[in-house]
TrEMBL record, chain B:
NCBIfam families: Rieske_proteo
Biological source species: uncultured Sphingomonas sp
Span list, region Disordered: 1-24
Matches recorded under Pfam families: Rieske, UCR_Fe-S_N
Name of the protein in question: Ubiquinol-cytochrome c reductase iron-sulfur subunit
Gene3D superfamilies for this protein: Rieske [2Fe-2S] iron-sulphur domain, Single helix bin
Catalytic reactions of this protein: a quinol + 2 Fe(III)-[cytochrome c](out) = a quinone + 2 Fe(II)-[cytochrome c](out) + 2 H(+)(out)
Domain of life, source organism: Bacteria
Note on cofactor: Binds 1 [2Fe-2S] cluster per subunit.
Cofactor dependence: [2Fe-2S] cluster
Further comment: The Rieske protein is a high potential 2Fe-2S protein.
Residue spans of biased composition, Polar residues class: 1-11
Coiled-coil stretches noted in the UniProt entry, renumbered to this chain: none
Enzyme class: translocase
Phylogenetic placement of the source organism: Bacteria, Pseudomonadati, Pseudomonadota, Alphaproteobacteria, Sphingomonadales
Length: 438, 196
């Protein structure tokens, strides 16, 4: 698909030939994830996370469709139907645990995937579109996860719906009517629950469509790699199958083991007991926090407490959305031509400080509000924006990067002729023949 | 130089020349491939199981598997419709004429040969308990309620496709293949029937 030496698909028998001329799906698969897609040979395990995210999406869609067969999107019966799934439906408990923990699993994978992209400069040319489509997927995931969390109609569901739709009321003039419009009422109720269920079912399919666009966009330049050096010739790549199918297969095995530990032994470790109390519009839980994957954003939301030109409430909402929208502009904020942070000594420090900063925001987002945690979230939120808007442009301007390897194959094989021969041409292949004669 | 192991070549389609150098025989890598793929296959099968068994009747449905009905108020010639496992059940108190009519039929000539005695409990031959589900395609036959069309044989008549059942609930005319089903039941007392 992407490189001149990509092996073309050759139908093995007459039936496949017949099919290829009419519906070339096997050709598409061969060129996308088969032997016909050359991939840099030096990818490390961080490159497993794209496939893992796809797996997580698939798990969520399959278990979600099945749970939808038993769930009632009825305000008077939603909570009970979830309990019925847990107690009465055959294997319902495992399906729900997988779906519930699967959301966390999905976000954990996607966060590692995003930081992988930040570290290795995956947002830089020519992969800007891949990165931006990824941010679109991430925003859709957040909307999907939020609406899914409302469906069990527990206390956290209800008050989550109340607070999140409250964001819209921060918009001047049209805010409150917009909130009422979105909820179909003055507070979350039947109308909101039914539309959230409908959209929660729809959005994963829209995500799937964007995933297809993203893979399409990715396969034009091909995958990036840990050195950030462009692929130069055939020696730098390996066919996706069997090399990366095997590597991804191993990664999937490890990921599923970790996931199973949560599903079978710690199913409630990432949830809130308050959500096992049915929604009560008259009582807010004493300590209301979102799911862990929203903590950093919740901290940014809460960091604004003083009206400054605009009301504090609006600042919080704007900052929270800006913290993600900022990522769309990363390509233009980071001017360094060097992709991989491994060769950027100064930026490397700031990268890890950013990781730490996001973790601090996460901590602040779930903590009780005290003067200390508030100050912490304010400092961490300020640093978050400073990183992208000040540090990143300045560092990329003044930093002196380390020398880059001359090629991918040189960086991993140190020039051994035998090993760096193109795949399939060693030993008995024609290209290896002169080498063998030496 | 030839000892350098180039991984996985033989598994690549269109690369047969590599294996020739190795000679025949199962390599360790082949074993690992087969073992890993088999293990993944077993895992996938295990993962699919809950996705399928969730469709079978759940605990709340299975809890409805038996039901008790008081029949003390049903006079001869009357019948009631009740519900078992969400399906209609007909309980009919046959008149002596109904029993007579059922007994006078040549059993060998029926589509689904059964006597009235086969379809009732000993000593309780006047109590006909059947599912109210036509054995053709599942509609509820008429004839249990007062004034409903009982069909040409004085039992039940299915309005969907015109099956006629007699006073013993046996198929006599029309497309249905078998007699109305007699569910498992027993008399818990003289006046109470336990179905299921």
């Amino acid at each position: 698909m992407s490189f001149a030496w990509a092996k073309p698909y050759e139908p093995k028998n007459n039936f496949m030939k017949w099919l290829d001329e009419r519906l070339p799906v096997p050709r598409l698969v061969y060129g996308a994830v088969g032997g016909g897609y050359p991939v840099p040979r030096n990818l490390n395990y961080f490159w497993n996370f794209g496939v893992l995210a796809g797996l997580a999406l698939l798990i969520q869609i399959i278990t979600g469709i099945v749970l939808g067969m038993h769930y009632y999107s009825y305000a008077g019966g939603a909570f009970e139907s979830v309990e019925r799934i847990m107690r009465d439906v055959n294997a319902g408990w495992v399906l729900r645990y997988v779906h519930q923990n699967g959301a966390s699993f999905f976000f954990a994978i996607v966060y590692i995937h995003i930081f992988r992209g930040l570290y290795y400069g995956s947002y830089k040319a020519p992969r800007e579109m891949v990165w931006m489509l990824g941010i679109v997927i991430y925003l859709l995931m957040m909307a999907t996860a939020f609406m899914g969390y409302v469906l069990p109609w527990g206390q956290m569901s209800y008050w989550g719906a109340q607070v999140i739709t409250g964001f819209f009321s921060a918009i001047p003039i049209v805010g409150e009517p917009l909130r009422v419009f979105l909820l179909g009422g003055y507070a979350p109720d039947q109308a909101a629950l039914t539309r959230f269920f409908s959209l929660h079912y729809l959005l994963p399919f829209i995500i799937s469509a964007v995933v297809i666009l993203k893979i399409w966009a990715l396969h034009i330049p091909g995958s990036s790699n840990p050195t950030g050096v462009d692929v130069k010739d055939e020696k730098d790549t390996l066919p996706f199958h069997p090399f990366y199918t095997a590597k991804d297969g191993f990664g999937i095995g490890v990921a599923l083991i970790l996931f199973s530990i949560f599903v079978f032994f710690l199913p409630y470790s990432l949830g809130h007991p308050d959500n096992y109390v049915e929604a009560n519009p008259l009582v807010t839980p004493a300590h209301i926090v979102p799911e862990w994957y929203f903590w950093p954003f919740y901290a940014i939301l809460r960091a604004f407490t003083v009206d400054f030109i605009l009301p504090a409430k609006l600042w919080g909402v704007l900052a929270m959305f800006a913290s993600i929208l900022l990522l769309f502009f990363l390509t233009w904020l980071d001017r360094s031509p060097v992709r991989s942070t491994s060769y950027r000594p100064a930026y490397k420090i700031f990268f890890w400080v950013l990781v730490l900063d996001v973790m601090v925001l996460g901590y602040a987002g779930q903590a009780h509000i005290t003067p200390f945690t508030l100050a912490l979230s304010q400092v961490a939120a300020a640093y978050y924006f400073a990183h992208f808007l000040i540090i990143l442009p300045l560092v990329s301007k003044f930093e002196k990067p380390l020398p880059l390897p001359t090629s991918i194959s040189h960086s991993v094989l140190h020039g051994e002729k035998e090993e760096s021969a193109p795949f399939g041409l060693t030993r008995t292949g024609p290209a290896a023949a002169p080498a063998a004669a030496e | 130089m030839a000892t350098v192991e180039q991984p996985s070549q033989p598994t690549m389609p269109g690369e047969p020349q590599a294996d020739a150098a190795h000679g025949a025989g199962v390599r360790r890598r082949d074993f690992i491939n087969i073992a890993a793929v088999s293990f993944a296959g077993v895992g996938a099968a295990v993962a699919v199981a809950p996705l399928l068994i969730q469709m079978s009747p759940d605990a709340s449905v299975r809890a409805l598997s038996s039901t008790e009905v008081d029949v003390s108020k049903i006079q001869p010639g009357q019948g009631i419709k009740t519900v078992w496992r969400k399906q209609p059940v007909f309980i009919r108190n046959l008149t002596p004429q109904d029993i007579q009519a059922a007994a006078s039929v040549e059993v060998g000539g029926l589509r689904d040969p059964q006597t009235l005695a086969d379809r009732t409990k000993p000593g309780k031959q006047n109590w006909l308990v059947t599912l109210g589900v036509c054995t053709h395609l599942g509609c509820v036959p008429l004839g249990i309620g007062e004034g409903e069309n009982k069909g040409e044989y004085g039992g039940y008549f299915c309005p969907c496709h015109g099956s006629h059942y007699d006073t013993a609930g046996r198929i006599r005319k029309g497309p249905a293949p078998t007699n109305l089903v007699v569910p498992e039941y027993e008399f818990a007392s003289d006046t109470v029937v336990r179905i299921g």
